[in-house]
Amino acid sequence: MSANTILSGRDQIQKFLGRSWKTVRAWIDMGAPIAKLEGRWESDVEQLLEWRRSQIASSVDNAWKPDQGGNPPWRSPAGKAGRPPLC
User: Fold this and answer.
1) Model confidence pLDDT, tens digit, residues 7-52
2) pTM summary value
3) Which of 23, 28, 51, 83 is the most exposed place for a label (fewest CB within 10 A)?
4) Residue 31 belongs to some domain of the structure
5) Is 84 inside a domain boundary?
6) What is the number of domains present in the chain?
7) 52: exposed, middle or buried (C-beta count within 10 Å: 0-12, 13-18, 19+)?
8) Which one has a higher pLDDT value, 70 or 33?
């Protein structure tokens, strides 16, 4: 772990992730590799990227796929349109 991959402080972490601190705190609760050390929030860029990739992969793995049959989540069981599909 080289010094240039360390994010130190809320502002650096938040800016790197491009999210609000409220979202970052929620991600910490979900296991994001961010810790408060000696009163200052710190993280490692590579660990954050790895964690985020795993979250995205997990989300994709759990997404509805056409070959699963049934209706996609945006369709009601009766086949009536729920929210319109994204274009």
Assistant:
1) 999 999 999 999 999 999 999 999 999 999 999 999 999 999 999 9
2) 0.65
3) 83
4) yes
5) no
6) 1
7) middle
8) 33
For residues 87 and 25, what is the distance between their CA atoms, to the nearest angstrom?
32
Q: Which amino acid is at 54?
A: S
The contacts found for 38-41 with CB under 8 angstroms, 24 or more apart, are: 40/8, 40/9, 41/8, 41/9, 41/10, 41/13
The pairing of strands 34-37 and 6-8 is: unpaired
Residue 29 falls inside a structural domain:
yes
Task: Tell me the HSE value of 82 on the side-chain side, using a 13 A CA sphere.
Answer: 8
Q: How far apart are CA 1 and CA 60, in angstroms?
A: 29
Q: At CA 86, angle to CA 84 and CA 87, rounded to 5?
A: 115
